[in-house]
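Chapter summary example.
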Amino acid sequence: MFTGTYTAIVTPFNRDGSVDFGCFRALVDWQIASGVDGLVPVGTTGESPTLEMDEHLKVIEAAVAAAAGRVPVIAGTGANSTAEALQLTRGVLNMGVAGTLQVTPYYNKPNQEGLFRHFSAVADLGLPVVLYNVPGRSSREIAVETVVRLAAHPQIVAIKEAGGSVERVSAIADACDLAILSGDDGLAVPMISVGAVGLISVASNVAPREVADMVRAACSGDFRAAGAAHRRLYPLFRDLFIDTNPIPVKAALALLGRCPEVYRLPLCETSTKIREQIRATLSALNRV
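The structure predicted for these 288 residues follows.
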């Protein structure tokens, strides 16, 4: 159902800390004009932990309105509280989103049965669900056996794999019929080579056409072109994670003149050294 490149789009803020919806709409237009296949607002890259409930829903609504049917929108409505994930997901049921991204509940570290019940409860609301396995942020992996159980639910259609393991893609593809999306820019090509069907990308915020072309080449089986694109883009993939995401990607967008470099605490600006490294990488890619 979901294939290709989906941008985990940033949430731009005005200098006073409010959401900059004008800038957000411009980013959506740029992404779509550059050839991405879809958008994922208000994930980790969209600074979901610092958005209030009404802001969270307004950003998703703005993404759907700006996309205007040109590409699908997968709404980030996950939470570590099942009640909150249900509330957020109910809030987008009639917005026209194509699905919802559900992160592994973080901090409270549920067991596998708890994970199964959590994701199943959200899926029961009726929207297509993309599971989000990201043990580096959640301290809990969705076991392959649990993925298989969840794949039997008709509304659980895909999984975003951000655990750094290409082998898990093979294991999931071998065990069930679930669309797999890479959650790591730097692993997109190898993951697609063993069964993934796309990428939910941070780097496409900065280089949407280049990342989309790389993924399109890999998905079509042209791994020579995809590998060349990966090698060219690798410094960007690396540097967008030399500080906590989304700090580097917002710094990069600010250097491109696309987005103010404004965060909400506890996130804040990166160091001058890191910013200059990002600038050098963008310059090498002829972006600045």
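To summarize the output: The chain has a mean pLDDT of 97.
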